[in-house]
Task: inverse folding
């Protein structure tokens, strides 16, 4: 049996389903991210686990114990909110101590636990400071320390990095994962940032319109999206209309202008309309060889570690991402040819 399970969990407000038939099994020590756009149900899922909202139906269990109807204070979970919710009149040490005091832990045990936790988050030298005297990243680590010091079975993170600037946010992603691995606490994080979810999670739950649409390891999620929404929300992608003209172990799909390519057919039958997904980094510039796609560079963008090109082709405009290896970039308005490996295209449902 999995450590934390959600079975058919739903939350309705009148006729509106904020969360619909959510099923999720989380293993002990796993780091799970709930990923999706605003209003997709990810925060509702976190609040249901925490006990901050009552579910309409379904069951939530933790290590075999039914949490579904228990109030927040009897679930014993650690929660870090988007705003951190630190007590401004308390020092770092006092903030971290708060949960232990509520549990009436003896002072010498509290002091030992606080010292260990502040060392873990690299804030032992800041124990006497107040939140206003800390940077955003430091405040975030205080909030994490306060949640973890009570040794919760599950840590819940509600967009914990959203208030940080881009560089600090990236640094804190890996710091957060380091802390989680060190402690081994089962963790569920809500985020709308796909790069954040992919970089630090064991598995990612992509949500759309109140439902979990794919639960997968980050690499599989990126390389094998199950829908148009997932393929475009999780990273950049080129979407090309096509039709299966031969379904077998390897399907042949016909694109515009009669171009054909071999792909994994998935669940699509012969004659089915489909959308072909091609990630920008899977395409590359090549010579005018057989099978290459002719085009013209319309725009290029320098992104530091890579160049992003928009190339007009008979299949429509395609985005092409090339690593910045120090060589001269392709010029705008240049005539080019594109190619890609046989096994990088993916099929999802066609536009209705």
Result:
């Amino acid at each position: 049996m999995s450590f934390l399970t959600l079975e058919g969990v739903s939350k309705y407000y009148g006729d509106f389903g904020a969360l619909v038939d959510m099923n999720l099994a989380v293993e002990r020590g796993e780091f799970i991210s709930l990923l999706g756009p605003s209003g997709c149900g990810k925060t509702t899922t976190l609040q249901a686990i925490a006990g901050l909202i009552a579910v309409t139906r379904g069951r939530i269990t933790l290590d075999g114990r039914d949490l579904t109807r228990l109030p927040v204070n009897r679930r014993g979970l650690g929660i870090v909110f988007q705003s951190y919710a630190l007590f401004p009149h308390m020092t770092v040490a006092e903030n971290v101590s708060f949960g232990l005091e509520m549990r009436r832990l003896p002072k010498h045990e509290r002091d030992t636990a606080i010292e260990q936790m502040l060392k873990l988050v690299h804030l032992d030298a800041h124990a006497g400071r107040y939140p206003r005297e800390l940077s955003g990243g430091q405040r975030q680590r205080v909030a994490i320390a306060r949640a973890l010091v009570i040794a919760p079975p599950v840590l819940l993170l509600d967009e914990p990095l959203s208030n940080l600037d881009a560089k600090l946010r990236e640094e804190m992603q890996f710091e957060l994962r380091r802390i989680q691995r060190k402690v081994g606490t089962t963790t569920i994080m809500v985020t709308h940032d796909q790069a954040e979810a992919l970089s630090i999670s064991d598995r990612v739950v992509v949500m759309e319109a109140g439902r979990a649409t794919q639960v997968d390891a980050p690499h599989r999620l990126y390389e094998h999206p199950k829908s148009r929404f997932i393929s475009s929300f999780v990273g950049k992608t080129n979407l090309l209309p096509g039709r299966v003209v031969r379904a077998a172990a390897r399907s042949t799909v016909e694109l515009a202008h009669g171009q054909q390519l071999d792909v994994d057919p998935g669940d699509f039958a012969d004659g089915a309309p489909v959308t072909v997904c091609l990630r920008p980094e899977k395409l590359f510039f090549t010579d005018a060889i057989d099978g290459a796609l002719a085009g013209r560079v319309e725009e290029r963008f320098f992104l530091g570690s890579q160049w992003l090109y928009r190339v007009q082709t008979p299949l429509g405009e395609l985005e092409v991402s090339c690593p910045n290896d120090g060589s001269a970039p392709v010029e705008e308005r240049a005539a080019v040819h594109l190619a890609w490996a046989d096994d990088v295209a993916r099929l999802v449902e066609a536009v209705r």
